[in-house]
Amino acid sequence: MRQKELQQKIKQLATDKGALLLAHNYERDEIQEIADITGDSLALSIEAQKTDKQLIVFCGVHFMAESAAILSPEKTVLLPRADAGCPMADMVTVEGLKALKKQHPDATVVTYVNSSAAVKAESDICCTSSNAVSVARSVAAKKLLLVPDRNLGRYIAKNVPEKECIFWDGYCATHDRLKVEDVEQIQASHPDALFMVHPECRPEVLNLADHICSTSGMYEFAAHNPATKFIVGTENGILWRLRKENPDKQFIMANRDMICPTMKMTSLEDVLHCLETMETRVTVAADIRIKARTALDKMLAVPR
Ligand code: 13P
Ligand code: SF4
């Protein structure tokens, strides 16, 4: 079936079934094109919570669909590819986190939303790439366990120097791959470009940035900054909307290999299959869901 035909079929079926199609900013272009809403991981879960629709098709990775299921347990949340996980989220286990907590009983656990529901349930508060610094500042404890991203952890530590920070040694291979040499090389060819970068990148790369922000922060920065050329330090799926919303501006990847393999798994065929079969539903057991919800709600209560 041709791409356009497939997209129309999905849209029709989604309307017939009353489904809301959500797509993360890193999904393939043809998936973002048909989504009702595109956004960052937390924004999409909040949209899933706000909608009257009872069926959510979450084109993203597993922890995102779980977050939607935690916030809206009464809704049906479908993940078109059950095997689309986040390799960084998988780097921390509940057992490992429990052991670290035992070593630091006086610390508050601040967990990035890129984590499983079970890990969130063992955490005191969650954070996202856009509110990580405000969340860390809001915590009363002097000592923080930052889980699972060591790069986001170091970024928090730099911006909240009054806290003692202990990092879990996880990382996102897609962002960690970006090296100082890559950025310097592109900057040399485009000296008039501004460099915007995601805090999942290495600290030495963040040191070169004009702006450090979440994926949603990049849309805002590019739209409101008078510059016309930007070097992009995040997963390449972000380019679709950046280019669509800013046709007169130029966006250059800092490293062309910043492609998340699991974010790119979901195809149009998968979305159609998911709507036809209503598979795979993502649910979170009540005991875990209630504790994970507390950590998410505490985060949502922190002013930006
Ligand atoms: P945000 O879209 O929340 O910035 O997250 C980036 C990411 O890596 C999601 O997997
Ligand atoms: Fe996980 Fe990185 Fe892929 Fe995001 S880009 S889903 S953090 S592996």
Automatic annotation (TrEMBL):
Pathway(s) the chain acts in: Cofactor biosynthesis; NAD(+) biosynthesis; quinolinate from iminoaspartate: step 1/1
Statement: the UniProt record of this protein carries the keyword Manganese: no
Cellular component per GO, a single term: cytosol
Pfam families: NadA (PF02445)
Reactions catalysed, as given in the entry: iminosuccinate + dihydroxyacetone phosphate = quinolinate + phosphate + 2 H2O + H(+)
UniProt key word Isomerase: no
Recorded GO MF terms: 4 iron, 4 sulfur cluster binding; metal ion binding; quinolinate synthetase A activity
Keywords from the UniProt entry: 4Fe-4S, Iron, Iron-sulfur, Metal-binding, Pyridine nucleotide biosynthesis, Transferase
Enzyme Commission numbers on file: 2.5.1.72
An individual GO BP term: 'de novo' NAD+ biosynthetic process from L-aspartate
EC class name: transferase
Needed cofactors: [4Fe-4S] cluster
Annotated PANTHER family: QUINOLINATE SYNTHASE, CHLOROPLASTIC, QUINOLINATE SYNTHETASE A
Job of this protein: Catalyzes the condensation of iminoaspartate with dihydroxyacetone phosphate to form quinolinate.
Annotated protein name in UniProt: Quinolinate synthase
Organism name: Desulfuromusa kysingii
Lineage start: Bacteria, Pseudomonadati, Thermodesulfobacteriota, Desulfuromonadia, Desulfuromonadales
